[in-house]
Amino acid sequence: MEETVYKRSNKGKAISKKDDGHLRLRTDTSSIRINKTILIGRDKSCKLQIDDPLVSRRHAMIEFISKVAYIKDLGSTNATYVNNNPLRPNEQKRLRRGDVIRIGKTEITIS
């Protein structure tokens, strides 16, 4: 029978800190593992929904191509920023751990 592990125990802390090798999107309120494609925007069909009038319905997309994560601005009205640099519409930029994406008022950290 498997043992229950509590998050606050030393064993639980060690398990939760393990790096599975995948990149994650982290906001103040959520964390999403980047598997294949993540659509970001206000629309309900987006995996990462941002309720902000500065965010387009389909604002940006993050996708994995050959084990590398890229972000693309989907022609948004107010641009997508990576490390304070705006992306041109449909420009694709490689993402690395520590990069900060800003969409509207939301900051998303790649970890």
UniProtKB/TrEMBL annotation:
Pfam families registered for this protein in UniProt: FHA
PROSITE patterns from the UniProt entry: FHA_DOMAIN
CDD domains given in the database record: FHA (cd00060)
Superkingdom of this protein's organism: Bacteria
Stored InterPro entries: Cell_Proc_Reg/RNA_Proc, FHA_dom, SMAD_FHA_dom_sf
Position of the signal peptide: none
SMART domains, A to Z: FHA
Domain FHA, residue spans: 38-87
PANTHER family xrefs: NUCLEAR INHIBITOR OF PROTEIN PHOSPHATASE-1 (PTHR23308)
Protein name in UniProt: PSer/pThr/pTyr-binding forkhead associated (FHA) protein
